[in-house]
Structures are given as structure tokens and as C-alpha cells.
Amino acid sequence: MTTAPAPLVFSSISDVERDVGIAKETLRVWERRYDFPRPQRDANGERVYPPDQVYKLSLVKRLLDQGYRPGKIMALDVAALGELGGKAPSGPAARGIDDPEIALCLGLLRAHQVAELRQRLSQAMLSMGLQRCVVELIAPLTTAIGIAWTQGQMAVFEEHLYSDMLQTVLRNAIVAASGERHDGQRQPRVLLTTVPQERHGLGLLMVEALLALEGAHCISLGVQTPLSDIVDAARTQGADIVALSFSGVSSPRAAVDNINELRLRLGAATEVWAGGGGVAMARRHLQPGTVLDLGSIGSAVARWRERHGAPAGDVPAAA
Description:
- With 319 residues, the protein is α/β, with parallel strands linked by helices.
- The chain has helices spanning 13-20, 24-34, 51-65, 70-73, 78-85, 100-110, 114-128, 130-150, 156-178, 202-213, 227-237, 252-266, 277-280, 297-308, and strands at residues 11-12, 40-41, 47-49, 189-193, 217-220, 241-245, 271-275.
- Strands 5-4-6-7 form a four-stranded parallel beta sheet, sandwiched between helices. The protein has a three-stranded antiparallel beta sheet with strand order 1-3-2.
């Protein structure tokens, strides 16, 4: 007696938005522009997506997060997307999946030894220092986990375990860094957030940790803040800088539009800094000094202090 195959489980557009992280509006635009995805319709005429399309969308989103453009990858099949996702993107991080420390951390995550991984990263911060640990270990480790997921070597829930653990590690580091003294130095007030289309927050936390290390006073709004609320918060909090993170989900054009709109609304008194795969390729379309990577945050804060000088009352008294 043969067993009937299990029926396919289709996902609604809301399911795809929640589980894959691609906005409904983006899915509809891709459907018209690239002829993918190709949803079917349920009894009510609503879009539903078969499992193979949901999986391909997951691969597409991972590549977008690495900086690829939709028009370059949407026509590729699943095998080609997986192969492309297995190539580490170019960038300042020197370590890759084959690095012994990265491999060890990946092994701990795959074994679900999250407490041990958290302890190892915390110890690395003590031995390497926060700045080096974030730039040389945590950032490339996060990229390696994304690549492992693309290659089918990491489950979604394991990524979530890592994300939750890393948030704890970074928030503890931010608290510790915020308590350090920076006597005689002007401390910029930095508002950190993402625009409504951007859901990723780990990069933002890395930036906040490095800014706190430099003595900046950080005010985090979390992710997906409307532009009007960013402007209101910046004015209310007296922010000197608004720092934004754009992953590959956002197109470079959208990133430029958001940055220019914020700059227009905020005025010259508040700078706008941005980083991430979604804005890196748009550097030439923005004012110099707008686009930063993790390794350049310290020098950017130093340049800001040079432009603004020491705060009143911090000039040493004559002997």
C-alpha cells in the first residue's frame, strides 16, 4: 500500500514577509519587474506562494544582504543562488569560514552550545579589545553564519539563537563602554536607527558598541523608524549625528533618497552617517564622509571632534 504524498503547504504574502523578511510591497514590485515570484491565488483571490518559491526568496534575500542587486540575481535558479551565496562578499573583514576561530564558533552554534559561544565572544572582547573584536571577529562571524545558512549548513532557528545571543553580548559591551571616561573630549550625541524598510538590527548594535567605545552618547530607537519620527527624536534629543544602517534589502537608490530626505529635514546642524551593504555602492552619490564601515567609526568621531572642538569649560586652566 502506497502512502499519498503530503499536500504542499502554501504561504500567504504575510507569511513570506514575516518569515523571509521581504516586505509585501517589494514582493509585488518584483513580481511585475522580474516575473518572480509567481504566486498562485487562493479561494479568496489572495496571493499564496509554494515552498520552492519561498526557499528561493530566502536565498535571494540572503544575497541582497550581502550587497547584490535584485536585477543581477532574480533570474538565477536555486543552485546558482546557493553557489553565489557561498562566496564571501568582499570587504574589510579578513577572516572567512575557514578561519580556525570562525570555524570553532560555527561549530559551537551548530552544536547549540550558545552559552559557550557567548562566553567565547565575551572573552575575545577582553583579550582583543572591543573595537578589534567587533571588526575582526564578530562582523565576519555574522557574515559566515549567513553564508552557512545559504549553503544549507545552518537552520533558521540557529541563526535566531545567534542573533539573540549576540544582542546580549553587544548590549553588555555597550553598557561597559558607556561607563568609560573621556575627559576633555566633546561627546557627540548619536541617534541610531533604521528606516521603515530595514529590519536588520545586528549591524546597528555593532555600530553602537563602537561609538560608545569612542565616548559618543548613543540614543537607540531600534529598527524601522519612520523618517518623521527620526527627525522629531533627533531634535528632541539634541542629536549631533543620526546614524543609519542599510542592509542589502534596501536598494542603493532608496538609501540615497532616505539619507538626502533626512539631511534636508534635519538641516546642517545634524550630520547623517550611514553604513551597510545597501548604501556602500552609493557612496559616490552622497556627501563625503556620509558612508562609513565599522573600521572607520573611530576616525569619523575623531574628525567630528576636530570640527567641533572641546566643549565650553573643558579648556585646561593655566598653571
